[in-house]
Design goal:
By secondary structure, this protein is α+β, with helices and mostly antiparallel strands. The chain is globular. The two termini are 34 Å apart.
């Protein structure tokens, strides 16, 4: 939680739809070996009382969750560690961040020119909190993500109007750090995605001797999901599978998703009304730009749902399945076969001859069908 508190001044959740399984437990079949998990819940106890997110936590891990409102913004954090402190997983939910500067003075947030700008700031907070010390960056990856078909059809950035210019970028970023803990070599891996729109404006207000020069910079960024993994330099395969389960099982509940969508639209309307206090010339230009950014982000969010889900599936080795009721279920790929009774209980196994009905007496279980990727 402390990682984000000191890094982000104002955070607004951006709803990202993922398959919401009703799983309460996952039982590993004895033939191929498996992992027993419990369901961890992140509850908004301050305002709505809703369960905001759920995670599957393998046996032996100690989960910690937090959810804090600050005005109309919130921070949601999931963290789990092994009792010996050798392994830690922290999953930061997608968030939006705003940057604003007027006449060279930063008013809020900080400027993000690439995805690793955010990650370097996050690593700085990890060092301050004691999660890592004397860390050295051994790998750094930052690249433009390929455009999807929806992105290719989005409206192009507005042409320069006077001194107004706009730049939009979509990037994936990764950092790998090495450090020592009690004399043992350790590594920390941090990854995220960033979609941002940056607007700069230089204009003259008024005429003649009463005119003044005005400059501003505004950024809107959708960041995440962000994953932080700390482990020994040579982690055990079993722990790697357990990390994949936790990282890939994040679910946002539909009721909380709807609440966040209404909140975001209300804040967008309030922000638009605030711009009416500025001069007529600036209002006209900012109205056009605000509407353009709003439309771009609404279209981007429709794509971000599927894109983020597919990106996480690829990065974290997970697979979508469809149960016999037509519901989408996301499970780790550590096992080749998955079975469900349709009531939120699952059996995972990699033995092609295994059948829970005859091998475990679990009547009513049916094998799940793998679902193709979104695109």
């Amino acid at each position: 939680m402390a990682l984000l508190k000191s890094l982000v001044a104002a955070v607004v959740f951006v709803p990202v739809t993922v398959a919401c399984a009703a799983a309460a437990t996952i039982t590993a079949a004895p033939k191929g070996g498996g992992t027993s998990c419990t369901l961890a819940k992140i509850v908004d106890s301050q305002r709505t009382g809703m369960v905001a997110f759920t995670y599957l936590v393998p046996k032996g891990w100690e989960p910690k969750t937090s959810f804090t409102w600050n005005g109309q913004s919130f921070i949601s954090d999931f963290k789990a560690s092994t009792p010996d402190g050798q392994y830690t997983v922290e999953h930061l939910q997608p968030l939006s961040m705003a940057y604003g500067a007027s006449n060279g003075r930063v008013m809020q947030g900080f400027r993000i020119a690439s995805g690793t700008d955010f990650l370097h700031g996050l690593v700085g907070q990890m060092e301050k909190s004691g999660m890592v010390s004397n860390a050295r960056v051994t790998e750094e990856y930052n690249a433009d993500a390929p455009l999807t078909e929806i992105e290719k059809n989005l409206p192009k950035p507005l042409p320069s109007i006077g001194g107004m210019q706009q730049r939009t970028f979509n990037q994936s970023a990764f950092l790998k750090l090495s450090f020592e803990k009690n004399g043992q070599p350790m590594v920390a891996s941090v990854g995220t995605t960033v979609y941002g729109t940056f607007l700069s404006n230089n204009m003259q207000l008024g005429y003649g001797r009463t005119s003044t020069q005005y400059s501003s910079e505004n950024g809107s960024y959708v960041i995440g999901p962000t994953l932080v993994v700390i482990s020994p330099a040579n982690p055990s395969p079993a722990k790697v599978h357990e990390i994949q389960i936790m990282a890939s099982s994040s679910q946002m509940t539909p009721s909380f998703m709807n609440y966040c969508a209404r909140l975001a639209l209300g804040m967008s309307e309030a922000q638009y009304k605030a711009t009416k206090e500025r001069g007529k010339q600036l209002i006209q230009q900012m109205r056009e730009q605000t509407q353009q950014i709003h439309d771009n982000f609404m279209d981007e969010m429709a794509r971000k749902d599927a894109d983020t889900h597919e990106f996480c599936n690829y990065l974290l080795d997970k697979q979508d399945y469809t149960d016999h009721s037509g519901n989408l279920v996301t499970l780790p790929t550590a096992y080749d076969h998955s079975w469900s009774d349709g009531n939120g209980n699952f059996v995972l196994n990699d033995d092609p001859t295994f059948n829970p009905k005859k091998d475990m007496g679990m009547l009513g279980y049916q094998e799940l069908q793998k679902t193709p990727a979104f695109h």
